[in-house]
Every structure is written in structure tokens, then in C-alpha cells.
Amino acid sequence: MQSLLFQAEKNGVSFSPFTEIKSVEFNLGSFKVSSILNHDNSLEDYKFECNQFVNCAGIDAQQLSSHIKGVSKEHIPRLYLCKGDYFTYSGPSPFEHLIYPIPEANHMGLGIHSTVDIGGQTRFGPDATYVEELNYNIDASKGQRIFQAIQKYFPGIDNSKLHPAYAGIRPKIAGPGEPAADFQIHGADIHGVSGLVQLFGIEPSRINIQPRHW
Ligand SMILES: Cc1cc2nc3c(=O)[nH]c(=O)nc-3n(C[C@H](O)[C@H](O)[C@H](O)COP(=O)(O)OP(=O)(O)OC[C@H]3O[C@@H](n4cnc5c(N)ncnc54)[C@H](O)[C@@H]3O)c2cc1C
Question: Which domains does the chain have, with CATH numbers?
Fold first, then answer.
């Protein structure tokens, strides 16, 4: 990452971490951006102008979009939060490869798969549950359901080695019961603001399986 940052800065990029964009106004062909810089908990207003503005704020993209003057509400897709919990598996990894189960029809995620983190720890997950708020607490009671899902491809799993680990929340643009939706990239052809690009629903690609008949 340091090397990427070095290359970017060498080519004219200014990297501004700990900076929250508060509002954006499009006027006479340029974006007037108001932000707050957080230097060791001391907050400072920072305003700048640019000709192109990309809203790639992930789960906050809809919120940021609502603070871009000129973007009408009808062009901001509704955000649905879909939480995924991970469980770690203690001890040496039982696998030499990543394991992905065969996706189920219109499943909200990729299924409870097995990966290895950079410390070599095996982890299983994430599951997919729609939630109403950003709460990253792990629901330990899911353990049994996760265990049963893993058992389908790892019959020898030892339940006592499964431990709640961490969670993430996907910014979905399809709600519960709706068919899976792809991500959306909005340019001026959609919202009418020249130079503005907005990314919504960026999450792992999902497979929307249709029944096939051979
Ligand atoms: C449970 C779970 C499992 C996943 N598994 C996988 C996987 O196996 N493989 C895979 O490829 N992907 C996976 N993903 C998806 C992956 O994490 C996302 O696709 C990716 O992080 C999206 O990148 P992004 O840059 O669009 O958004 P983010 O990584 O969310 O980055 C958005 C950034 O914008 C910043 N921001 C927000 N608002 C503002 C503001 N107002 N001003 C300034 N900055 C702001 C945020 O602080 C953040 O740094 C998973 C996601 C989840 C939740």
C-alpha cells in the first residue's frame, strides 16, 4: 500500500486521510467540496474545488450523495444493510485451499465459505442477514446454523473449535425477498451532473442462479 501511495503521489495525487466530506456543490463547472479534517481529534474545516468528483463512499455512498447539491433524491438507490458474521476455526487449518460451497439459488451472499487470514487462521463465513442498523456485534447464537452449513462440505468439523470473530455489513441495493441486484455506477446520463460519478451497492459479485434444464 505504501508503494501504491508513493506512485500515486508521484503522479500528482494528494492523499488526505481522516477527512470527511460533508457537502458538495456543483457550480459553474466545478465542485465546491466542504470537508472536515481530523488531526488527532482536533477538527479543521477544509474546502477545495475539483472538476471531477467520484462518490465511492461504500456503505455511506447514499448518505454522501444526499449532500451533493444537484442530485435529485430519485437518483439515489435505497440502501439495504446486509450483515455477515465470520467465525474462526482454532488449531491448524484443515484445508490447503479456499473452499466455496456451490451457491444456492438467489442466495444473498456467496455462502459460508472457508478462507485463511494473513495470520494463517482458518475462518468461515460470512452469512447474510438483513439488518436495520450498523451494529457489528457478532450473534453467537448463529453458531449452530453456521456449523450445519460448513458440515455440508466439511463433515469432520469440530463444533468446539468454532468461535465468533468479526462482522461486516454489505451495502445492498436489493431488499429482502427481492432478486439480487448488481452494483450501479451513475454518471451524468443518470443524474445530470457533469463530472460526477457515483458508485452504489459495491460488494462481492453475486451469482443470481436461474434454474437450468438440460
Ligand atoms: C461481510 C463482507 C464480506 C465481504 N467479502 C468479500 C470477499 O470475499 N471478496 C471481495 O472481493 N469483497 C468482499 N467484500 C466486499 C468488499 O469489502 C467491498 O466490495 C469493498 O470494500 C468495497 O470497496 P469500496 O472502496 O467501494 O468501499 P469501502 O471499502 O467501504 O470504502 C469506502 C471509503 O469511503 C470512506 N467514506 C465514507 N463516507 C465518506 C465521506 N463522507 N467522506 C470521506 N470518506 C468517506 C470510508 O471511510 C471508506 O474508507 C465483503 C464485504 C462484506 C461486508
Answer: 18-73+181-200 (no CATH), 80-172 (3.30.9.10)
Q: pLDDT at position 106, please? A: 63
Our answer on whether the CB atom of 37 is closer than 6 Å to any ligand 1 atom is no
How many angstroms does the Cα of residue 208 sit away from the middle of ligand 1? 21
The model's pLDDT over 34-53, given as tens digits with 9 standing for 90+, comes to: 999 998 889 999 999 999 99
Exposure b/e, 142-152, CB count within 10 A at least 16 = b: bbeebbebbee
pLDDT score at 157: 94
**pTM passes above 0.85:** yes
The C-alpha R_g of the chain, in whole angstroms, comes to 21
Ligand 1 centre distance from Cα of residue 204 (Å): 10
Cβ neighbors of 155 (< 8 A, separation 6 or more) are: none
**Alpha carbons 119 and 159: distance in angstroms, whole number:** 21
Residue 84 Cβ contacting ligand 1 at under 6 Å: yes
CB atoms within 10 A of CB 165: 17
Q: Is the dihedral of CA 145, 148, 152, 155 positive or negative?
A: positive
Least confident of 18-22, 62-66, 110-114, 129-133: 110-114
Q: Alpha-carbon distance 45 to 159, whole Å? A: 51
Closest CA to 142 of 84, 81, 204, 90: 84
Distance CA(87)–CA(165), nearest Å, equals 5
